[in-house]
Amino acid sequence: MGPGKGKQVRRSNILVILEAVIIAYIAHIANWMVMQFANDAIAPKNDVLAINIALLVIFIQLSALSVGLYEAKLRESFRGILRRIFVSVALGYFVMELLTSTLLQNISMHTYYLPVASGLTILALAIFRYFSNKMGALGLGKNKIIVIGAGERAAIIEQRMRRDVDRLGFELFGFIPMPGDDRENGIKNETIVEVPIDEAFRDYLTEHDIEEIVIACDQRRGTLPIDILFDCRVRGIEIVDILDFMERESGQIAVNMIYPSWVIYSNGFHTHNYLRDALNYGINAFLAFFILLFTWPLMLGTIIAIWIEDGIGAPILYRQDRIGLNGSIFRIVKFRSMGTDAEKDGAKWASKNDNRTTKVGNVIRKYRIDELPQLMNVLRGEMGFIGPRPERPEFVEQLIREIPYYNQRHNVRPGLAGWAQLNYPYGASVEDSMEKLKFDLYYVKHQSLMLDLLILIRTVEVVLFGKGR
């Protein structure tokens, strides 16, 4: 783990710890207030109070995690953060109320305790987030970086990481132009540093507290001073390739900048583990069956709504060939959200506000209800809950021809939700597919149980705020 990524993780960890302390303290204050002002209040035992405080902290923070409040690069206004705080506390309140009124009645508190604790927690977290964001209190000393190169490859930082929220993990000192850089398509508005990379370069870096060098020159052969960079690395200055830097800071792989040797020497895109595959299927099948038990009334309601709009007997399900693991073809099953003649002229990209979508289709697509029948694909082992979204064969043939490394996304089983959907939620063209592939390849390269868990709980945010297609 590089220093930039490490500081992002430490920032998130400190945020979790500080907010846990705040919630616990507020819960204690809420109990004191209820004891003081409620006439019928009876002081709870210390162990009962401690259990209530601990559960409240756990449920609120799990809810906060699910709505993205601990995401290192949360792209949201303060109003949006307030909304997420409100939702996370409300979810925590709901779970606590449900537990203490049913399964854990022996630890129930005064009627006013949870409302008071929840209201004060929303206020306290809002104030804390406002000042921590405004003052940059949790920046933890951003990595100070300098970029070698000012051409087309270096310009991806300027183009993709313009906002402050994109640069939470680093402070950009400037760009050093190199021979062979495409300056016409290179850096336009960032600081250009005219400094020779010679024996005095290391002293220059020390003088300006540079901790990391990003290699982003357009022409490497014969232009990079390897001896100088080796000396810098030996003396503790990190050296990182632009591809690895973008992967670390943005959670995507810059497909248009990949060169074969990077693929060869990176940690790979194909990790076949039969034990993990079997375990994944077991977990996915169990979750699919469990969700079906609870969502069948919603699915029945969807069927009725489609028939009301299109007439009894109208097609309910939509079946379509998709490309799955290792390029195999399977039939995906969804609730029909478009008219029955939506593809009378052949396969077309779906688009935002597509006029082929029915009224019921607009609602079920927004909240992902149309994808519930895909639980059957999960039970059959054709899909998992987490993975790149499967694409149609007609489009895959085109995308493989036009986008380098596109076929690598088929090294893992497709899923109902994915890293690309969280970071780039809509795709209706080859250009959009290129952008989504950057996130898909990041997932293929870094797939793990923890990343799957993160994607799963972050998908809750998509459903809660209606951000689905």
From TrEMBL:
MF terms in GO: phosphotransferase activity, for other substituted phosphate groups
Chief location of this protein within or outside the cell: membrane
Annotated localization: Membrane
Transmembrane helix as UniProt keyword: yes
InterPro entries on file: Bact_transf, EPS_sugar_tfrase, Sugar_tfrase_EpsB_2
Transmembrane annotation, as ranges: 12-34, 49-69, 81-100, 112-132, 285-308
UniProt keyword list: Membrane, Transferase, Transmembrane, Transmembrane helix
Family: Belongs to the bacterial sugar transferase family.
Protein name: TIGR03013 family PEP-CTERM/XrtA system glycosyltransferase
